[in-house]
Amino acid sequence: MREVDILVELKKQNISIDKINGLNINDIGKKLDKSIGESDDIINRVKNDDIILENSKQKGNFAEIVQDYFYEETVKNLNRISKDRVTSLDDKIHQGIDGIYEDSTIGPPKFVISEAKYGTSKLSTLKDGTRQMSNK
């Protein structure tokens, strides 16, 4: 992994430079490659029924993992800029927008805001009555 690719990937995964102090560039690249590979592995294992999603938390986390993989690996010019990336089926559930991605080619659109859903799940109404992903 080239140094510039590592810096882009650090930005995607919201990893602070403070967290990687003391590691050389090759070690950082290996850690990032492993993270991308783990997401790909989770997706393939669920698709092949090697992993069964047992609850709504795992289903929601799987949807977010697929969302990140799609935007970052399929649509190459989008970089995740939001925090709280889901990397495991058992990660803690986070409230708020599931993913914000910046278009590195300066769009339009400049940003993609995404809400991941699994299966037949639909956007919900928030406690204040606002519909999820509405303009309000």
> How far apart lie the N and C ends?
42 Å
Biggest sheet: strands side by side, in what order?
A: 1-2-3
Apparent shape = globular
Secondary structure: number of strands: 3
Largest sheet: 3 strands, antiparallel
> How much helical structure, as a percent, in the residues?
25-40%
- Give the H and E element order: HHHEEE
Please state the average pLDDT score: 77
- In percent, how much strand structure appears in the residues? 5-15%
Number of helices: 3
Instruction: Work out the radius of gyration.
Output: 16 Å
Structural class: mainly alpha
Count of domain modules: 1
Residue stretches low in confidence (pLDDT < 50, at least 5 long) are none
Any overview of this molecule?
38% of the residues lie in helices and 9% in strands. It is built from 3 helices and 3 strands, in the order αααβββ. The mean pLDDT is 77. The protein starts with a helix and ends in a 22-residue tail after the last strand. A hairpin with a 7-residue loop joins β2 (99-103) and β3 (111-114). With 136 residues, the protein is mainly α. It has helices spanning 3-12, 25-47, 56-74; strands spanning 78-80, 99-103, 111-114.
